[in-house]
Amino acid sequence: MSGFKPLHLLYEPLIQFLILGALIFAVDHYVLLNKDDPRNIVVDDKKLRELVDIFTEGQGRPPSATEIDRLIITWTQNEILFREARQMGLDRGDDMIRSRLILKIRNILFNNIVVEAPPGDELEQWFEQYRAAYDTPALYDFEQFYLPDAGDKNAAAAMAAALADAAAPPAHSDRVRRYRQRPATNLTALFGERGGRDLLAAPLNTWVAASTDRGWHLARVTQRYAAQPAQFARVRNQVIRDWKNYTRDLQLSQQTQAIAERYDIHLEVSPEIVDELSDAQAALARPGPQQSAAAAPVRR
Known about the structure:
Helix content: 40-55%
Shape: flat
Oligomer: single chain
Low-confidence stretches: 30-35, 287-300
Mean pLDDT: 80
């Protein structure tokens, strides 16, 4: 009689079925054990670099420490809403990008919010609390032109002193740019904190040397308009709209916070990237040419 050959069992259909089932179970168990926890959110070096790079590309400068905190908070909130939308199955049959899913769940949360206008006295108190958003600030007419041949501050200042309150020289008249009824923030954005202060402190129509990212300019304020406090009765409808928007945003934030409590959020950032970002912020804080101004803020 021939000897027992265990390898022959491998050819038995029942044994093959049992082995295959065991393999499938083992693989499935392994995948489940190693599957990322959908409620575990990690902000690591790669993600933080991505957020910082997007900000830097859009703004033309690295973010400040406060702005980095906001980037992390905003991305985390959006990631929570994205995952919550996936959990609710909002992505089924929809190939739109991540932001579309975030928008969907935001709309779901937003549509659950009903806001009525508050009593008149409460609305007026809210208006007084945020009065700065409704008051018309002091405004200024100013003009400026670029000095392509000014090598340094002394040369620009000498030309400003020589002109005093005269018109721009004919050689520079085609470069003169005039601005009407702009807030002080526009002067600061164009010429920096010091340049803006110098212009506001100078007598009307007096040229002042100021720098931008292009180089040295001469600028002067030609007209001042006093600040105008808002009258509640005149802006009441706008205040109601703003109050409702504010209240909706607050309730949306509270709903998002309630969802966020179901997630574990970890910040796993290495000391190297912290040092790298600190160096970038230090470079940003050094004195240097100022960036050009954006358009004037919209006034209510």
